[in-house]
Structure to design on (270 residues):
């Protein structure tokens, strides 16, 4: 009898339904949306403070049909792409110099460690004085915010490559550059991609602040204009667009990780 029960239990566990990864990630946000709509519908939350999801959806549709959202979205994407390209390039170059050479570390690391402790968003007044109120301070803010996550993670990745692997490969007669290209940089790639994911989050955060600097376009400008007209639905649309962009950027990095790190065993299987 006990054996029959155990067999039934094992069979029950084997028939357990596993939801797809994408559905598992969306389950909690969808549940929160349903709770939000119900709270506004029952009058627990004032629509003057927080509009319902259906009102936000209507505002989103109006902005999309009019083409206004696409115009501001393209401007924001251009800014964050330019800032991210500069920040990732600068962070990567500094991490390679400091990570691959003790002299490079002595020259750069102390300076970069001091700079990274400064809250880069507090530099907005200085950026306005230095670069004016055009596109440059917005892009510079994104670049500065994204450079340090790349530097810290790539530097740590280079320095934590297994010394035994490096020593073993060195016996094969590889030159220093071959050792760097074929062993050290691939070993540091997971740390770089982790830094890139963090940098993408910082990039969108920096853009939110940057687009409030006398901007005439962009998602941040759309939100600031909506504030003047008390359009909380449009403000939340702008915030949702930022969140979706951040989620899509993170998804792209995850896909890159999955294809570039196929050699690394994963603890959690899909």
């Amino acid at each position: 009898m006990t054996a029959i029960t155990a067999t039934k239990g094992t069979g029950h566990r084997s028939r357990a339904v596993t939801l797809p990864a994408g559905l598992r990630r969306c389950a909690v946000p969808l549940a929160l949306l349903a709770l939000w709509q119900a709270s506004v519908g029952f009058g627990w939350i004032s629509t003057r403070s927080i509009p319902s999801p259906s009102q936000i959806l209507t505002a989103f549709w109006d902005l999309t049909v009019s083409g206004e959202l696409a115009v501001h979205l393209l401007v924001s994407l251009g800014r964050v792409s330019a800032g991210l390209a500069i920040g990732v390039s600068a962070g990567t170059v500094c991490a390679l110099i400091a990570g691959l050479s003790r002299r490079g570390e002595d020259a750069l690391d102390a300076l970069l460690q001091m700079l990274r402790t400064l809250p880069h968003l507090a530099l907005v007044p200085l950026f306005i004085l230095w670069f004016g109120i055009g596109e440059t301070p917005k892009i510079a803010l994104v670049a500065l915010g994204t450079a340090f996550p790349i530097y810290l993670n790539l530097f740590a990745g280079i320095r934590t490559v297994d010394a035994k692997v490096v020593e073993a490969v060195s016996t094969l007669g590889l030159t220093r550059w071959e050792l760097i290209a074929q062993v050290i940089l691939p070993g540091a790639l997971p740390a770089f991609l982790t830094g890139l994911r963090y940098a993408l989050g910082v990039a969108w955060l920096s853009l939110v602040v940057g687009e409030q600097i006398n901007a005439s376009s962009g998602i941040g400008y759309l939100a600031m204009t909506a504030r003047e007209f008390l359009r909380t639905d449009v403000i939340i649309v702008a915030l949702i667009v930022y969140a979706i962009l951040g989620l899509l950027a993170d998804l792209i990095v995850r896909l890159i990780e999955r294809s570039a790190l196929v050699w690394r065993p994963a603890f959690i299987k899909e």
User: Anything to note?
Assistant: Residues 1-12 have pLDDT under 50 and may be disordered. Residues 115 and 148 are 9 Å apart (CA to CA). The first helix runs from residue 2 to 14.
